[in-house]
Amino acid sequence: MPATTHNQHVRISQASHRKLRELADETGESMTAVLDQAIERFRRERFFARAAAEWEAIQRDPIARAELDAEYALWDTTVADGLDGEEW
């Protein structure tokens, strides 16, 4: 069972509470479980949004792009390490 904190409260609007209850009823899960899932999904969305923004910044920065291209070139040499595809 996940850890819970009972001494802290978060206020949400009546509309959000109603939607949370509807989702809980629809899924058969507790409102806490639905809320935990929503928070985790939002956390992941934020993570990937930040990663995408960083990737775009690298693409726009000529120095960072050159460093990345050099890294790719290093990794490309590992492909030519003399092993047949059947050996690995």
Q: What is the rounded distance between the termini?
A: 43 Å
Low-confidence stretches: none
Summed up, the helix count is 3
Radius of gyration from the alpha-carbon trace, in angstroms:
23 Å
Number of strands: 0
What is the helix fraction of residues, given as a range?
over 70%
Structural class by helix and strand composition: mainly alpha
Give the overall average pLDDT: 88
A few lines on this structure:
The chain is mainly alpha-helical and 88 residues long. The chain has three helices and no strands. Helix content is 70%, strand content 0%.
Structure in words:
By secondary structure, the chain is an all-alpha fold. The protein contains 3 helices and no strands. It has helices spanning about 15-25, 30-60, 60-80. Helix 1 crosses helix 2.
Main attributes of the structure:
88 residues, mainly alpha
